[in-house]
Design brief:
single chain; 285 residues; alpha+beta; three-stranded antiparallel β-sheet; two-stranded antiparallel ribbon; 11 strands; elongated; disordered N terminus
Length: 285
Amino acid sequence: MPYSRPPGSSKRYPIAPTWIGRNSKTCSRCFTELPISMFGWYVDNRYGTQRPKAACADCSKEKSRGEYARKNSKGKCCRISGCSRSVHSAGLCTMHYRRQQRENYGACKVEGCDRLQQDGGLCPMHRRRLRLFGDVGRPGPARRSGNGWKESRRPYFVKVRTRGGRLDKYRMVPAPESPMANRKGYVLEHRLVMAQALGRPLLHGETVHPKNGNTLDNNLDNLELWVSHQAAGQRPEDHIAYAEEILHLHRRCGYACAQERAGQRSFNGRRSRARSHGRSRRVGS
């Protein structure tokens, strides 16, 4: 179905020179070469010219239907029995929708890659590699190195921080399974070593301090755990001793005794203030 508003060359928004006299265009969604009348037009504000849209009118309508269906199904559960995930598209969650897409269209043609294929039989990752380097490379994530491919994550790298004009260097290591990892899957090595020694991830406020001052020496013998909830540089054993002292004090005196002492202090404070006011009045009289 041709677009209802064909472009009109105006003085304000002329047709882009690259599209003058062209009769056909390839749709970016169905990859079919169609007459130029099957595309909508828009104004490119960068150059002040009119250009045809990337997708044809039929594909644009199909995309609009899909977006409407996703908005309409928001908050509903997947129609597969036993699945409680929210709907992504076509009444299915993301996992079941991708499974259905793989059954309909197949997986990537690269051996070992189970991602959903697109045009050309390749997934988006391998399509990009083929376009940039002329080689699809490994089935999984990888980094380009010269003429070959390497692991996607480096074995380690040194992160430099500036604090008060002082440079501190810390080693970052890959540990994507750790809850302390950043979005790229790296963790500070000294924190990872201490967490493995404790058998749990470090809590908020817990820091790891190198005894010899070398931040790149991450042997367990050189590391000690500090707690900085109240005072910077407080060791866990000192923190525990302080907490036990407070508990012992309150258990010995009792909560009522503590309240009574607090009331006596406030009463004495009021009486001393009254006396000082009285003295000041007497001196002034």
